[in-house]
């Protein structure tokens, strides 16, 4: 017991004795790690550009953006929830229901189109369903005070069940004028699907990083009591993030239905990729918090990886494993950079 | 003091009581409803069937998660431990090794997964959520690569199938062996978590990691044991699972993950400090299993069962958290 105490007091004394050098070394270390993560990403991309035939062709790059659109929009929703709820994974903000919600929205959208409704009411209903499921999460988390991890887990089960009852676990093939527009039209060589990811990114970056709303949201996630003391209605912001993530799920469901021309069971499996994208994105920020830019980069990176593997003719069975290994590698290095800070 | 005047002590006590026992009350109401709706629900043969087929496997995984969640962590890779134990076990039996060797190697594979988690979390300081998420991805790839993209291995006939029967279909005093395995696991985890120094230290880590560290608990070592224990219990499940279905189906273990997390956290509503307990977890598993079975007997199809279970979990959590708020 005594030895433990004495080593700790020695550590603290050492810290107090030489603050400038330690902090500078810490800052340099953090910077190196952050650049290291970016450099690792860049190195892999350069390797793919050299080794994978046709990787850098404009058509392929746009293809990657298109493939990333569905994941990207959901990852934005997840980032929003994590920003507003704090990044403590067991008690902070998290939305496990987002992928299942997307499945419900896709099922509802496809079903309504099949029943003969036109695009506008079907789209409207889909967005409403997404937001409604988000509102259920918001009520459970803020109104009832259930841990987000649990509340959204329960809602995820409900949503997955609803999707199955709507689709009877079958593929609902549909087509409509709006879906055709999304999947075939293009402007300046950028297809509408790729365009919607770009548009969504611009709107999200503007909203989260260039408005007072975004700043307050970070305050709510970072230190709820301080935010409340500063007069911010923290609970309202948190509720908003869950409804927003429901909206993102609905938008992403429309993109998926247009890409596949159908709603397909099994969208709930995207949850882990969404989580990976949102959490991996934190390494691009100086304070290791989720940012929209970071999320976008990691979504595109995951897309490049899957696409590059395809071009290199590597078995797709490797993709999950490499993705997992990368998460561990990146997070391990960043947690070493973060350790001196959190030790204070 | 001001809350006292607004909220008289009697009402507060009542609502604390309901908050702590909402799980039991919902469970009792649910069983009563099913018993009235379908007479077969309470028949001994049905209850026995529920216990053997729905409870045992999930409960053992959930017991492992109870230890991990008590320590303030989470293990998303329990499915990988289940699958790899089952894979190694079935592959070795198929290659003609004896049952004992296969069981040992299967459990060894699960322990390796736990050790990997432990190293990532305690040495590399990765948060449990991300570390086990990464291991989950890697484990899925490993299985796909080892089985040519997810081809199941069936061992329906011959000597290996006989070895399976020895584990899953034998019984003692007309109680099947898997139930004894569950009972043994539950007792061991109970003693470990609630009646030992190790358990107290683990719970201390979960409640106040900083204080636990400063009071001299060897955080890294205890956490390593926690993740190894969680993976080992998942491995036991894997071996029971493949013995029951006489095959190894890749990526089937993940089905346990969310139910086990749900059961463990439903169980936390039973304790007044909202901590995971062995008894609570077992009750949570029982409730999920009874709900599935009851809805099946009432005639709901599989899809509606899922909605029903989601709503049930939601109601229990809502009741417990809302009443708890009222109590304070």
Could you describe the 3D structure shown?
The complex is a heterodimer of chains A (344) and B (328). By secondary structure, chain A is mainly α. Chain A contains 14 helices and four strands. Chain A has helices at 2-17, 19-51, 58-85, 98-114, 119-143, 148-167, 177-184, 192-209, 212-222, 224-229, 234-260, 271-280, 292-311, 317-342, and strands at 172-173, 186-187, 190-191, 262-263. Residues 1-19 and 340-344 of chain A have low confidence and may be disordered. Chain B has 328 residues and is mainly alpha-helical. Chain B has one domain (29-322): ABC transporter involved in vitamin B12 uptake, BtuC, CATH 1.10.3470. Chain B has 14 helices and four strands. In chain B, the strands form two sheets. A two-stranded antiparallel ribbon of chain B has the order 1-4. In chain B, helix 4 (78-94) packs antiparallel against helix 5 (99-123), helix 8 (177-194) crosses helix 9 and helix 13 (278-298) packs across helix 14 (302-327). The model of chain B is unreliable at 1-5 (pLDDT under 50). Classes of the chains: A mainly alpha (344), B mainly alpha (328). Chains A and B meet through helix 1, helix 6, helix 12 and helix 14 of A and helix 6, helix 12 and helix 14 of B.
